[in-house]
Amino acid sequence: MRLLIDAVAGAVGSGAFAVLVAVPRRYLGEAAAVGLVTGLVFGVLSRAGMDGAGAAGVAALAGSTLSEVLARVRHQPAVIFLLPGLIPLVPGVTIYHAMADLVTGRGSMAVQAAGQTFLWAAAIALGVGLAAALIRGIVPQKRA
């Protein structure tokens, strides 16, 4: 049940962010679907025991792959679907703790939280880059 809640929350958060960044209305459903996939993959992997950064990287790979496929089907840039779809993977709590620790003078804890945030960001970037390179190498996008 918790996994379903996480997946739906990912879709709702991604859909809301898509509205915020002015994704065209006709693509809001696809942007939310990418968020659902990333939230679901992240939830499954983290519950299976994978660490947060690793699960975020694999989820970003899945979301980026779906975004690249949607980009080819809809003849739009992949970023329209990908940017909102990555919202469920943002380590907001870790970023908050890093900043709170920094402000309250707990420097070593701030560095630890910032390092964890960097690992998440690197894993997400690696997942996005790998999917983009693979899909674009296999199925190049047609120019209009």
Number of helices in the DSSP assignment: 6
User: Mind summarizing the main beta sheet?
Assistant: none
Number of strands: 0
User: How many separate structural domains?
Assistant: 1
Distance between the termini: 44 Å
SSE order, as H and E? HHHHHH
Strand coverage percent: under 5%
Shape: globular
Broad structural category: mainly alpha
The portion of residues assigned to helices is over 70%
Question: Compute the gyration radius: what is it?
Answer: 16 Å
Please tell me the overall pLDDT: 91
Low-pLDDT residue intervals, each spanning 5 or more residues: none
Put the structure in a nutshell:
The protein has 144 residues and is mainly alpha-helical. It has one domain (2-89, 123-138).
What does it look like?
- This protein has 144 residues and is mostly helical.
- It has one domain (2-89, 123-138).
- Helices cover 78% and strands 0% of the residues.
- Helix 2 (28-47) packs antiparallel against helix 3 and helix 2 (28-47) packs across helix 4.
- The longest helix is centred in the last third of the chain and has 32 residues, at 107-138.
- The radius of gyration is 16 Å and the shape is globular.
- The relative contact order is 0.15.
Task: Summarize the helices and strands and which ones pair or pack.
Elements: H1 2-20, H2 28-47, H3 52-74, H4 79-85, H5 92-103, H6 107-138
Keywords:
globular, 144 residues, mainly alpha
